[in-house]
Amino acid sequence: xxxxxxxxxxxxxxxxxxxxxxxxxxxxxxxxxxxxxxxxxxxxxxxxxxxxxxxxxxxxxxxxxxxxxxxxxxxxxxxxxxxxxxxxxxxxxxxxxxxxx
Length: 101
Description:
Layout: H1 9-15, H2 30-47, H3 51-71, H4 76-90
Helix pairs in contact: 2-3
């Protein structure tokens, strides 16, 4: 079973002397593959153990968010504006507030 990868990954694999099996996803295949990639990257972020690893994984999550926004006909700036509006209405996470039950 395969997975969605960044655009240059096949090129990088070829440069290492291997021959990757690749195909372009159809319009109906891409959205679920992108959402699966979001889950994969979020899990990798959760598994990161150092600040440097977390930052690298956060960058991967960010790249997927850019693609999700584009798929929705929006930009990452649109996502940031929506996040700012939600922050103004509901706050952020700096307070470290845990809600039991």
